[in-house]
Structure formats: C-alpha cells, structure tokens
Batch of 3 targets.
Target 1
Amino acid sequence: MKKLALYLSLLAVIVLLFIASLRIGIIHLQTPLWDLIGKHDGIDATTVWDVRFPRVFGAALLGAALGVAGVIAQGIFRNPLAEPTLIGLTSGATLGSIAVIATGAAAFGSRTNVESAVLFAGLAALLVQLLAPNKGLGFLITGIAISAILTALAGVMISISAKPGVQSLSFWNFGSLAMLNNQTLKIIAPFIELGFISAFMVSRKLDIYSLGENSSHYMGVKPKQIRLWAIISLALLIGPAVSAVGAIAFLGLLVPHIVRLLVGPSHRRALSFSALIGAIILMLADLASRTLFQPHEIPLGLLTSLIGAPALIILLRLRSAQWVSHD
Amino acid sequence: MKRSVKLLILGTALSIVFGASAQASGINIGPEQLKLPVVKSGEVSKYQKIVALADGSAEIIAALGYKSNLVGRDIASTMPELANVPIDTNAHQVAVERVLSQHPDLIFIDANTSPTSALDVLAKSGIKILKIPSAFSLASVVLKERAIASALVVPKAEKLLEVKMSSSVFPKSKTKVAFLYLRGNASIYLVGGKGSGADSILSKIGFTDVGANLLKTPFTALSAEELIKLQPDVLLLMTKGLQSVGGVSGLVALPGIAQTPAGKNKRYVTVDDSLLLSFGPRTISMLPLLQQAIAKVAGS
Amino acid sequence: MINVKNLSFYRENRVVLDELDLQLEKGELVLLSGSNGVGKSTLLQLIGGVLKPTSGEITINGTDISEMKVKDQALLRSIAPQRRIFTLAYSVGEVLHLLPEKRRSFNVDLIIESLGLVEIMASKVTELSIGQQQRVSLAIALIQEADFYLLDEPFSAQDEDSVLNLVALLAEIKKEKGVMVVSHNTGTHYSQFDREIKLT
C-alpha cells in the first residue's frame, strides 16, 4: 500500500511537471494551455505542440528508458557501476548513429539511423562481454576501454565527414533534447516501447540471476540466455535515446540507486519505479537546461552530471546503495 | 509501461500535422554576380610596390584604382579581378621570403596579421609597415578607406567609397529578417544579434534585423523558442552554411525554424560565405542585390 | 531416478572423476562423502548441468540431461550450491519467493520453520551471519519443487542444533523425494542416512 501510494505520487509529479514544462519557456503564453488543446495555429499553439511537447514528452520517455536500462545493466552485470555508458552500450550507439550519417547512408533522426544505433549498442555490449576476463573489475575496465575506442572512432568519423547532420562530438557526448521534434519521437518511441516490454519480461529472471550464475542455472534460468535478452533490451532502450539526443550521463547509474533505496532490490518493482524516477529527473533537468540561463541552453548531459554525480556520492556515503561486493 | 503507451497515443493525437508545405523560395548571391566598384581620384601614389596583408585591404586598394601598384595580397581579398596578384600568405601565416622577394615599399597589416615573428623580420628589413583598422561593419569600411588613402598620400581618394555608399539610398521595408550562422557538421547553430555585422547591412538596405532588436550579443545559440519569438519573414544565411545543415530540408528540421513565417514558407536568401561578412568595396555592390533578393523572396 | 553412468570428467587433462556410476532414487537420503578435492562438488555441477561430462551420461527419470532445457532440468532436480552470492539486499522473505508460486514446494512453511528462518524473514540477506546465509541458501533450494534434492556441504557453517533440525527436515522430505547430501563431515548424524557413497 505504501508503495502504491509512492507510485501514484510519483505519477502525479510527472503529470504536474509535464504541464509546467508545457507552460514555461522563453515565450510567455497569451492563451491558457487548456484552450490550446486541438489548436494548431498561432505562435502559442506551435510553441506548445511543436517545440515544447516533443521535448517534454521526449524527456519523460528517454528518462524512463535510461532509468530502466540502468536497472537492467546493473542487474545483468551484477555490478553497481555497470552503467550503459561504462559498458560500451552508449559509445556503441554513438558510433552506430554517426557511422550511417557520416557515410551518407541515412539522415540524422531517420529510422535507419536509429536501427544502426540499436545494432551497434548491442554489438558493443557483446564485445565487452566477450573480451572481459571476469565479471568484476576486469569487466568494467574492459567496458571503459571499449567505450574509449568506439568514441575515438566516432570522433574520427566526425572529423573527416562533411555530411550535414553529423553534429559535433560535444552534442553526442553531452546530450541535448534541443534537436528533438515530433517526427523523431514517432520514430524512436516504438523501439523504446519494445525495450520496455523486453526489460519487463527479463526483470523477474534477473532476481534469480542475482544469486550467481550456477545458482541461476540450477533454478532454471540459463545465464547465457538471460544475458543476451538483457543486452537486447538495453540496446533497444539506449540505441534510440543516443541516436536522438546523444549521451546523457549518470542517469542510468543514479536512478537504480535511488530506486533501491525507496523500494528495495526486486528488479520487477525497481523497473516501474525507475521509469518514473528517470522520467522525473530528466524532465527537471530539461526544464532547468532551457530556463536557467535564458536565452542560453545548457547541454543536458552537463546538468545531469552536475546533479547526478554529487547525488550518487551522497547515496554511496549513506551506505544505502544496497550492494555487497564479492569481487 | 502502460503509462508510456497511453502517453504515446496521447502524443500522437496531439502532435500537429503540418499543412501542405510551401514551395521553397530562396535566392543565392555568389561572388560572380558582383563587380568591384572602381572609383578613381586620378592622384599618383608615392608608393609603387604595395603588399596588402591586412584582411581585405587589397580589395580597397584596387577599388581606389591602384591595382597596378599591388605586388602581393592577403588571402581574404578573393575577388577575380585580383587573380594575377600573388597571395603572400600560407593560409593565414605571412610568407616572409615571398614578401621580401617582391621588394615592397609599403606593407599594410591589421590586428589579424600573424605571426609576429614574421612582422619583426619585415620591420627590420626597413620596409614601411602600416597597421590599419579591421572592418566588422559597413561604417568601418569608411575608416579603412581613409587609413589606406592617407597612407598612400592620395587625399582626394579618402572619401570616394564613402560617397558612393551614402549615395545609394534604399526604401524602408516592414519585412523582418533574421541572420543565421550555421555550421551543421560542427553543431554550430547561431542567431545573429546586435553587432553580428549582418545587422549593419540589413539596416542599411531598409530591413528590420529582428535578431539585433532582441539579442544584445553578436551571436546567440539558436533556441527554438527564441526564434519563434523573433518571427522572421525571411532568413539570411551563408551559402555553405545552408549546405552544412543539409539544404532547405535540413534547415526546416532545425528546432523552431518550421514554426516561423520564414520556415513555414521556406523563404531565405543565401550569400557566399566569403562575401557576406567581409566588409569592403564589394559589399557596396552587394547591397542592392541583397535588397532586391530579400524583397523578392518576401513578396513571393 | 538420477542415474550417473560411466561418468568421467577431465579438467585441463587432469582426471577429476573416472568412470563413476551412481544412482539416487526417490525415497532415499544418501550421503556422498569423501575428502576434500575428490570431485564431490564437481559431480554436483555435472548433475546440475553447469559442467559437461568428458564422457559418460547422466539421466534423470530416464532422460539424458544434455537433451533437456535448463528450465526443464530445474523442474526435476534442485541443487544448493556450496555458496550463493547475495549481492543485493533482498529480505529473506523476498529471496525465498523468487520462483513463481506454482514452482514452489507445498511445505514451504515447514522448511522455513525447520531452518530457523521465521524470526529473520524481514532481515536483509546481506546483513546475515554466514550460518544464516547458508540456511537461507538451503531453503531456496528446498523450496524449489523437484523430484530430487542435492545439497553441497549443507552443514559446514551450522551448529549442532541446526544440523539436527536440517537432518530431520531432510528425513521428512525424502519420504516423497530423493535427497543427496554432499559432505566430508557428517558428525554424529550418520545413522539418519539410508546409505553412503564414498568418493575416492
């Protein structure tokens, strides 16, 4: 009951944030929001539906995706530091995005662009798995090394490509919702939905898997299979996010720690809560990024780092991260 | 999960379907369309071998009728009329030996001329070196002309370009223009504000630079809402800038563009990158062309 | 019946198990003994399907386990490994209910009570003593519904009373199931076992 109440209040916060974000911005709306529903003409209507809506909805959707991905990643790699950024997924998705744009195979924000990001994210995660000597420190170091290689390759492609839409390395590394529009959202949303479904299906097995590989095997959950499934879920969640808005730091790392503090370690429960918490944090960050220093916009990834990293340190100091190291 | 499905459906329902998109109407102004406006005072300069290293200074010297006195030029003076005058820099670095081999009696430099070591060598060789102001607006072209003419000791030439410029008068128009500086492959998307350079051009030819009216700094990162607030009728761009975002389709995909009258109707004027903000005599020939182009696009 | 026939296992060209034959039937409580390093745990990992035999075969109720899905093997046998990794702070109650209800044994309450877990159901598994963690690990295995239960060194971190209760519980479970306990030290409870297999 307490958890249901918490769930509903978080949901209410999202609705309020959604409305507030549609109303707040550089342009002061002359018309009440309610009267703009169904309207498509005029500065107020286009500002709300064409400019703010995709950003706010995108922040909610991508925040939820990154939060869920964080839970899955930490669960499957049984490591509290296994964030999509650290285990090669994010840089894989970045390289996948840039590769098709730089070679002219697809435009920024196209479906091919998203598919390539998903594919590369998955391959990068598999590569890290394949090369890592163990599941502990060696795994993280391998992840960091692979990420560095992939990011460097992406940087080289950016430097030698004159193709429009290839963006800059800082766009890809720090993330920004500014380029998000309704068309891009329509393309990435189905991928992320699939990622949610897949993550939800894998979540109960992750609880069993958390007791160790042999233990998991004895209880009827094949480790190899669940890892593959989790990586597919992660690629479906991270790939589209990166291809549309670049890498957003710390969210995937921070959200699961907050969620475990609130509702305990169960992956299934953590999943729905981390979707809400992830959405709230990213919506707040986006609101701050576009309103704090008007008319300048602060890259989103910088804000999430500035908020996320200290929060993470505090959480870890509280010894409430709820992980026990066995490596 | 259910929540996001619902949100997605809501989002799709709410998202706006654009009306039939308008035909693009854009005009490009390239260097081949511009002639150097040559005005002569008839005076003979004291200096016969001039090396013009200050940005754009060779253009002014040629425009004042002293092209035959030029033995070397800067890389920014790009017009075809100067093709047979050798460039005395490697990229933007002064090539000392090349300059010395031309035995100049006068060298023009400005704040951008580098490296200083090269300038030191030239100074030691006893050649007269003169530093002239850089030009980032129409008004400063006049100052540059004065500095050059007085250095050449041709007093009557000091105001020839200035007179030509002030004699061209343009009608006032209500059309609102915004200048965008775009470099798509480096994620640089900027709106010109007060002091961008484009503001002096637009106000000279009678249009309102909406960016300059609202933004206090020369350039501001493009934000969708800021642009919507400006409501420009026409966008002024650089030719390669438009290419760098993937042409018109890439332009209207940038945040906020499609929601402005200019974006909705795809009304824009592009000017060659080396031309638009390099202030000099060719700017004077560019003004009427640009005025006509913007007026035509706005009326389409 | 779990039937191990002619089973050999080599690790890096070293013989760990050599042409071993062994059976476990329903209704019996068997002790698998032998000194450290004779391959008792390896045998359990082979029966559990984590390791693949070099030669020979293992069947459960007549089917070779190499032809069974991991999911189906888990419906026939349950194994308590020597050590389970508790990295996440589940409560004892949560960790005992990870399997869906239809896969849990009908005598969950008896298992929880016999293993002395009633008082610590709300405690976090990560904060328990080694002995308590071992009893939780055994409970997880015994709660999993199956025909055969194989426990690896279940007494190693238990005091006399706990061992007594556990052996009594196993004697109850074996009435319908087959139970094998791997141990190199059974203390005074040798008489409770139906037979002993010595691995040398």
Target 2
Amino acid sequence: MTALLDTLEGTLGGWGTTLLVGFVALAGLITVNAMFMVWFERKVAGWVQGRLGPMEHGPQGTLQTLLDVVKLLGKESIIPAQVDRKVFLLAPVVAFLPALAMLSLLPYDNNLTMTDVESGLLLVFAFGGVSLMGIFMGAWSSNNKFALLGGMRAVSQNIAYELPLLLSAMAVVLCAGSLNLGEIVAAQTGENGLWFIVMQPVALGIYLIAATAETNRAPFDIPEAESELVAGFHTEYTGMGFAVFFLAEYTYMFIVCGIGATLFLGGGDGPLLPGPVWFILKVYFLLFLMVMARWTYPRLRFDQLMNLAWKFLIPLSLINLLATAAVLKFVEVGS
Amino acid sequence: MVDLAFGFLIVVSLAGAVMAVALKKVFHNLIGFGLAILGSAGVTVILGAEFVALMQLLIFLGGIAIAMVFAVMMSTPREQDEEDRSPGRVLGAVGIGSGFMVVVGFLMLSGVFPAAGPQDDALFSAQHLGLLLLSDYALPFEAISLLLLAAILGSVIVARRSREDDDLPTEGVEGV
C-alpha cells in the first residue's frame, strides 16, 4: 500500500496523488453506499411489511443490487426525439457532480477531511442549489408535462425546506461558534464536550424533517410521486441517465445524514472503535431513520407539504435560533 | 496552477454571461446565468473572500436563479418558435450595460476602490463581516432588511388580491 502510494507520488507529484486517491475513494464510497442503501431499503421495507425482502441472490439477498447494477448498465439509453438534447444530457451530470464535492467536505474523523474549508457547512448547502438546477434542467428539457410538473414541485419544495434546514444548522453553528465542520465536531468532543443533540434536540428534529424533504424522499417525495406523475422529473430518463439521477439521490441522502451526524451526533466521536467507523455508523443510523420514515408515513399532499414548511418548521426554527442566541448570551454574561 | 484556474474561471464566467444574453430560450439564458455566477464565485474564492463567494452561490444560485425558474414556467413552450428580440430592446440593453461598465470602470481606475494588496483572510471571515454589519454598517443593513420586509408584504398582498379576484370558491377545495 505504502509502496503503491510512493510510486504514485513519484509519477504524479503530491498534489496529483491526493486528487487521484481522493477521487477513487469517493467514487468507491458513492457506489458502495448506493448499492448498500438499495438493498437495505428493500430489506427494511420487507421487514416493515412482514415480508422477507430480496432473498434469492447471496445470503439475505445481498447480491441483489449488484445484479441490478449489471442489468441497468446493459440497458439501452433512449433519448426521446423532442427533448432539448444538450440540456437533457447535461442534467444528470449537473445533478450529480456537486455530490462529489460535498462528500469531500465531510469530516470522516477529527483529522480526516479531504478538503478542509473554513465555511464548509455553507459550501455544502450552496452546492445543494447547484444540484437542484440539475434536477430542473432534466425536468424542463424532457419536454414532458409530468417531468415539468415534477420539476416545479421539486423547486418549490426545495425553496421551502432549505430555510428550516439552514436555520436549524445555524443554531448549532451558534453553539459551536464556527462554520467549519471540523471545528463543529471539535466543539462536541474533548473534556467538556457534549453532543449537540443534547443542547439542540428541536434543531435535530427540524433538520431531519427538512433533510428528508430536501432529498425528495417519502413522505415528501411529491416531485416524483409515482401514482400521479409517473416518475416526476426523471420520467424520460432511461439507462445510465436514470442511473446517475438515482446515484445522486442516494449520495445526497448520505451527505445530509453525514452533516446531521457532524452537527448533532459528534461526528467521529465515540469510545473503543476508530473515528471513521463511528462516523459511518452514525450516518447509517440516521439513514435507517429516513428509510423507516418512508415505509411508515403516507405521502403528504402538496398544500400540506407547504403548510408544514412555511407555517410550522420555519417559525419553529426561528424561535429555536432566537432562544439559542439568548441562552448563549445569558451564559456568557453570567460566567 | 492558480493562474490557470483563475483564467479558466474567467472564461467560464464570460461564456456564461454571453449565454445569458445571447441565447434565445429563456431556460438556456438561465443556465448561462448560473454558469456566470459559479465562475465569478470561483474567482472570489481565489481572491481570498471565501465566505463572500459562498454567500454569492447560496443567494444567487440557490435563491435568485431558482426563483427565475418560475419565470421559465411562463416562457414559450418548446414546440413554438420564439420571435426575434426587437432591435430597440437589444440596443437599450446594450446601452444600459455598457453605461454601467463605464461607470464601474471609471470608479475602479479613479482609485475609489484601490487595488487590493495581499491581505489578511480574516478580513473576509464570517465573524468580521458579521461584526461590521452590526456596527459600522448597521444602518444600511437595517435599510436592506426593511426593503426585504416591504417586498415580502407586497408579495403577500399581491397573492391575496389575485386569490380574492378568482370566482372559484377558496374554502372547502381539496388540494391546490
């Protein structure tokens, strides 16, 4: 392993090696995460509904997604005649690429962040807007009313839920006194460290609900509600185009849960096991909650969705932010 | 390396800006706008103002460009051919744009905005900017929030009036 790295550094130089290793690691993480999540989701769905889920291939059906991937790769990519070709082909890429950048920002351990950015938290949210453009590009260029309706819904839903997402994260930022993800973790660990789930339980609840809506997951999956809109914004996508949108969705789930684990659950903090293991465990615990929500609650109607965001979550997160600021000031003056 | 990235980002911003005004379909213009914002945010990062760049991305791309998407909804459907823009409008836009460029260029050259030397990154940090907004620049900051409040109230009134004008019953209707 070390010998390999040395050879790489000899040929590419330190900078190139970092880029290559980071890229390969992220690509691996994205693929493995998506394959595991699809299997996991089907398994949990089975258990929730008193079924077994996939059982045929491998122990407990673990090889099922691998075979699904092979099938998907072999499928023909159909480009409908009336689409806006350039935008149509570009859309999955624009939706997916920000995920790569966002993954490299997560603090997998106290000393293991691929790119340490001063305002890392904001960068993650900023890139979220870019991927939303990708979704809408796909919806508009498809020249299909279901796709366009799905895209419209995705945009208005994301605008509505971005506010509580940011505001709940800001309450944690106030507690930690930094926008740097590594420093937010550091504020929760060490001698007097306390995971922010203790100080900010309300923010955690708001964050999880808003994150589920931001990733277009059930019960907030109205942008792709299959019973009304066929498949929403990706109706016209087949083969690899569809696969890339699919991959992007599961990667964003990993990212929002990674940020959730960083903000509220102490990142890689935990006894015995090494940091990255703890981090991954926490992320998949949050992902498990998201999967359970999907198979527990029915899909919201569009007006219910908007009411929840604008009339409940946003006021609540504003009050939470104000209360946090007031308490912090009180403590500061008192001490 | 940095020079190369800087040049690339400048090219991206300019290409986006040209796309934003030259292409015929509104949605293509919007993509160009997004590209220009991305490029210039990158330039801002290289200049050392990371927080400002992030805010630019968050507000212009995540907010304004996405809000413009709603305008796209009302644009001409794909099957119909768009009309050419009238020469009067094009001339007017060129006039306003170049006028703005002349004013900004004059201000920059006349030394009102001096060329920045190597500076402390902390000058552009969130803490420093936040403190400035609540101390030295408190009045403009409050004025802007007042403006935003007026805009929000205005949009609520507009939305409510159009709803009252409808003959459709507003109560007891399922869904939207």
Target 3
Amino acid sequence: MTTPLFSSYIYYSLCSILSIGILFGIYLMSKVNKSVLGNRLSATCMLLGIILTLIYNQIFPVWVLYLAIAIGAILGAILGIRVKMIQMPQTVALLNGLGGGASAIVGGFALLGIGAITAPFSLTTSALALAVGTLTLFGSLVAAGKLHKILPQKSIIFKGQQALTIVSLVLIATTIVIAALGIIPTSLMWLILVTNILASASFGTLFSIRVGGADMPITISLLNSLSGVAGAIAGLAISDLLLVAVGGIVGASGLLLTQVMCKAINRKLFDILLGKTSCKMSQTKFASTKNSKAQNTTASHSECAASKAEETDLQFENAKSNNAPTDLLAKNTNSKKIESSSKSESTSAKTESPSVKTESTLATNENTLAITENIANKSESTSTKTEKEKTENPLDILKKAKSVIIVPGYGMAIAQAQHQVKRLADKLIENGTIVKYAIHPVAGRMPGHMNVLLCEANVEYEDLYEMKDINNEFATADVAIVVGANDVLNPAAREAVGTPIYGMPVLSVDCCKNIFIFNYDTKPGYAGVDNPLYTRKEGTYLYLGNASETLEKLIGAL
Amino acid sequence: MTLIQGILLGVFIVATIIGYFLINNVPSLLHTPLMSGMNALSGITILGALTATAIAFKSINPVLSAIVGGLAIVLAMINVVGGFVVTDRMLCMIVKKGGRKQ
C-alpha cells in the first residue's frame, strides 16, 4: 500500500467518531420517536465510512469498485422499495445472508494473503471469517427459502444429520487450526479455502433446515447477529478498525435481541443451537399427551372461564360418541382424514342434540366440529349442566362486550386481514367497547412482525400490548378475538410435554369467556401441535376460512 | 500479535460490551425494524470488500479478482442499501402512526 493521504491518527480518530455515530444511531433506534433519525444517522455514518476507506486506502481510482457499488445499490434499492411488509422476515433473512456472503469473500481474500499479512493472527481470523460468513450465508438462504415457502417449512431431520453436523464442525475447526499454524504453503492455501467453505456451507444448511415452529424468529435473529460477528472477524483479519467496531456492536446487540426472545418463549439459546427444536416425540407419546390435553382443557376451562350461555352457532354440543378414544386420536393426528370419517359422526351429533342450529358460515365447519365435539366429550362432560341456560347469538355477545382483546397471528398476515381487523375494532369502539391487541413475542415469523403489520393498517401502537402486560386481562375481558393465530395461544403448551411448544408462555386466551376464532382451519399450527381450544365446549365460536372474508361477513352483520 | 492487532481486539471486546447493553428494553414494536437496521449495519463489511478488491485488482489476477471482489461489493451493497431502505420504510410508518395519535 502507498502512503496514506493523511496520518493514521486522523484515520483512527475519524473511525472512532463514525463508530460512535453508529452506536448513537442504534441507541436512537430503540426509541420509537427518534428511530427514523437513528436509522438515517447510521446510514450516513456508513456512507462516510465508505468514503473514508476509499480515501485512506487510496483506492478511489479503481473503477471496478464504483461499478460494483452502483449495481449493488440499485439492486438493494429496488428490493427495499418493492418488498411488502408481510415479506419482511424473508427479506431480512436474505439480506442477512448476502452480508454474510460478502464477509466470507473478504475472509477468503485475506486467507490468500490479499488485504492482509500472512501472520498467524490474520490467518486465524480470516479462516474464521470465511467459516462464519459462509454458514451465515447458507443458513440465511435456507431460512429465507423456508419463510418464502420455496422450501418445506417443517423441520427436516434425517438419519445421520447429527453425525454430519459434527463432521462439518470438526472440518471447520481443522481448517482454521491448519491455517493458523501456517504449516501449509501459500500455494496450497486454496485447499484449505475450499474445504472450509464446503464444511461451513453444510453446517449452515444442516443447522437451518431442522428449525421449525416458534424457533424461526429466533434463528433469524441469531443469524443476524452472526453476520455482524462475521464482519467483525473479517475486520480483525484485514485490520480495519471501523469494521471491527461496527461488526462487534451488531453481533452483540443481535445476540441480546436473540436472548430477549428466547426468554420470552422460555427456551435456552443453547438448546436451539443444539437443535432441540423439533418434534422428537414418538407417536405414542403424542397420543398420550393428547389425552391429557383434552382433559386439561376442560379443567382449565371450568377453572378460569365463567360458564356462559351455550351457543348455537358453531358450538360444541355434547353428542355422545361411540368411538373409542384411541380411534379418535388416530383420526385427529391425521387431520386429512377428518372429512371422510366425519359424516356419520355429524349425523349422530345432530340426532342426539337436536338443538344444533347451524347458521354456520361455512359448511365444512360442521364436519370438523363433529370430530372435535367427540374429543371434548371424551374428556368428560362435567360442565354440561351449566350449558343449559339460554342460547345467545354471537353477534349479541360482541355487541354487549365491554372489553375485547384481539389476538393476531401470522394467519392474519397471510389473509391480509389486518385492515378488516382494524375495521372490526373501529366498529366495536363505536359501540363503546374497549379494544386491545395482545401481541405474543413470537407472533408471526419474526419478532415484532405483527406490530409492523398492524401499524400498516393504522392501528395505534398504544393499543398493542405485550404478552406480559395483558395476559391477566383475558379472564376479565368479555371476548377474545383470535385472527390467524394458533401456537401462541395453544394451552397445550402448558401440559403437552415433549412437543415443540411445551413450556412456551402462551396468551391465556383460554381464560376468556368467549372466544371468536378466525382461522383458516383447525389443523395444528406451525409447531404441529393440536390446539384443544378448538374443541372447547362453550364460548368458542369458530369462523373457518380466509380470515379477511369471514371477518368481512361479521363486520357486515354487525 | 502486533500492537495494532491488540488494539483491534480491544475495540472488538469494547464494542461487543457496549452493543450488548445498548439495546436493552427495546419495545417489541421496534424489534423488526431494529433487526433489519442492524442487518443493514452488518453490511459494513463492504469496507473490507472494497479494500481487498482494490488490492487484488491491482496485483495478481485482475479479471478473477474483479469478479469475486465485485460480487462481494455487490452483495454487501444490496445488504446495506436494501436494509436501510426497508428499515426506513417501516420506521416512517410506525412513527407516523404514533405521531398522529398525539
């Protein structure tokens, strides 16, 4: 390198100022009112950092750089402007992967002695940067693919996956150690480079494909943190102060964000890293948990929900089922069978409880309910007597309600129903109802995703409540309206040991007297665990189908 | 390890600690924009990509280094610009809604 235009002291001072600027930008971004300013401040600092680097390293005459910058900036701007709010999780994952990929290339260059001296320190760090960058790239790409539904969303586990993961890890470690020792001639360094890339790519992919359910938001956050770490390590390799500082900040704050989320859903980061994320339970275990689940629902139901009038519309009648419980469980496990086997049951349900009036919104409800009724039945009909009061229209319940809590989930986003949700809320507010929104920390596919979507639909963010602030209010609220949410309010999380959501704090929707559920179907959610709320005997009103349509109907009826 | 590398390690550790405490108690409303903002910042690796590419371009195999290094710059730049634009869109939306209420 030629002598710099100005002394390194000035350079380092400027780097420090820019680092502090970026730090301050992040700090501002954690305050709602100053966040726009914070983001722009960070962006400006970044731009100044690029200019500073070009000048200090005297590389500004190299035309290739500008070409690449222009291409990247245009592509980035197009992507940034055109992406929809609902696609945010995969966008963040994708961008994240690209950043990791760039860090990996920098690490690769440094490993070959470009931009760095071939000393043990920079060789170690460059090999490390290459590894972390590559695994971030592949992990993020897989995550983005899953979120964008290009790849199957279920957690994928195959035989020998664990072994393959360990082999990849050992290979990565070996290449780093060999590179660090410097025992390999520079001419053979490409061998290390290729092995390192392949092993890291395989590790990143293996790590990401087994993630499913509520762990997806955490994985994204973790990968985000990793891309910062990759940048910082690359900075260590090529002795770039600004890169080290900013990468470190991003890595650490990303890690903290990850941990905040882990705490929110009561999981240990380490467990997620080890892949203890997925359904490992056997079929038998599943069946037994299901049994207890059904019973527990009734228990918790009679515990916290005051017995209310039974409902005609889409209610769970006490039809006595002739089916053996095991039979039923088998059926329910495979929800596809529901339709074929439900006809006989639904007729039996009708004959034995002639009061079933079906002003149902969708015909399919009947079939599904017939099955679910049976489960509810089997679990004991203790509260039968209380149901024999009067029949009430769900609309009346909604009109009379003094306080309503809306629970949105990813389904709302898919159905693009946030605007209908807002209109329903407006309607209720006109009636003098207090409307609040309960946001689970991992509702949606990325932390804070629901908040952004509701904000897009003009919901005031003062009406959005975090789980810990609102969970006690479900018992006193008149109505809980669930829109496209499942796992985050599944009471099974409290007792279904061995399922992916076990132990995750959930919204206590089951404590509410009346629950309106606007879900697409009664199939298990992302985590694959059945929700016993669907089978609750009273006070549950299911509106199955596309949430924006079913909500529209309800709004019309109101 | 030279002095400069020692300083770098020190900076890394300090930055990590500061970063760790910086965003404590962020409202969950801001989790998504904060994550995407941070994501944009992790594209700071563009600085490394610029330097390395320039050096590689001047020295050994100009064509290959232009392609590989150019790719690194393009990737990092998409990360930076895309990330900041997306974050700005989200934040503007959130703040606008928040301000109207007051």
